[in-house]
Amino acid sequence: MNASPHPGPSVRPLPDTPTSVTDPLPPPRFAFDAVTWKEIANLLLNLPVAIGGFVYVVTVLAIGAGLSVTVVGLPLLAFGLIGCRLLGAMERARAREFLGVHVDEPRPLRMSTLGFLPWLWATLKDPVAWRHALYFGCRLPWGIVTFAITLTSLFVAWPVLPFVARGMSTVDRAMVRGLLQPSSELEQRIAELESDRGVVVDTAAADLRRIERDLHDGAQARLVALAMDLGLAKEKLLEDPEAAAQMVGEAHGEVKIALQELRDLARGIHPAILTDRGLDAALSSVASRCTVPVTVTVDLPARPAEAIEGIAYFTVSELLQNVSKHSGARHASVDLWRTEDRLMIQVRDDGRGGADVSGGSGLAGLAERLGSVDGLFVVSSPVGGPTAVTAELPWRDREFRKAGQVRS
Prior knowledge:
Elements: H1 34-66, H2 73-99, H3 116-124, H4 127-155, H5 161-180, H6 184-239, H7 241-269, H8 272-277, H9 279-288, E1 294-299, H10 306-327, E2 332-339, E3 342-349, H11 362-371, E4 376-380, E5 387-394, H12 398-407
Parallel strand pairs: 1-2
Antiparallel strand pairs: 2-3, 3-5, 4-5
Helix pairs in contact: 1-2, 1-4, 1-5, 2-4, 2-5, 4-5, 6-7, 9-10, 10-11
């Protein structure tokens, strides 16, 4: 009798492991994580969103362009472009939620305070709105493709769906970044220039109000009183010549005061010495009126453009006024020199320090004015002093500007 062999340990096949070469392989398994499901949801939403955006853009552009010969056409087109901006904001929110794409918001459309026509023109040439309109114009065919492929893969080719979703979502991310993200450097520069233009306009308006107030309350009031005094003197000329002569003498003194006020006002607008002799002489004149002894050093190879000269002059003038009123200094210095294409200004004093560029102060106004022409303004003023204010302005050559004006 043959002995049966000793039975070995029983072997069970591992799950999903074929028991023979003829058994089929198990289907591949893919990880459907939260990111993948968000991408799939985004691809399915592409079609309804693309249809709505495409219909809106085509309708608004067609009606606005068609009615542009009438009064309502261009305003309608402008409001339609504002709507494109709003749709773009919704798309950026969808991209953040479903695709994880975080793009910066474009600069807001600056609403002009100059009237309806400037606002209309600014809106019609808004590059952000037109890029958003282009985005929705391109989305319809892509939305049809992504919806059809995703829906088919969802029910027919389920194993490859994550790969398909990832590939098409990459294209979606590229479209969002390409058309809905601001072109950073250019648009940031445009926003800065628009902000600077607003500062310049506000400063000019404030200067005009100051000039009007000074004329009304100063020289004008004094000249009115002078005219009345001369009229009374004329009436007394025959009756009381001595009183008339005294009144004429007083009027002569008032004339001198009025002339001085007008000179001071003209100096505040643009001093003649700056036009005739440049920054060295003009700043020396300003320093001579400061209550603190001031040393002025100007080392410039040539004269910059008139606008830059004016800004430099008024910057130093205001800084020296601050030295006189607030610093308690015993000495101050003003230095101007040129470094490459920059005009450098530094005003120092040995006063108590503590100067601060904060909202509402005169130093903050100076910083805004210099920023409006691409300048810089830095204050170093620890408590106890000393104080050093450094300003930079772009050097714009006077001869080049004149030559450009002649050529134009």
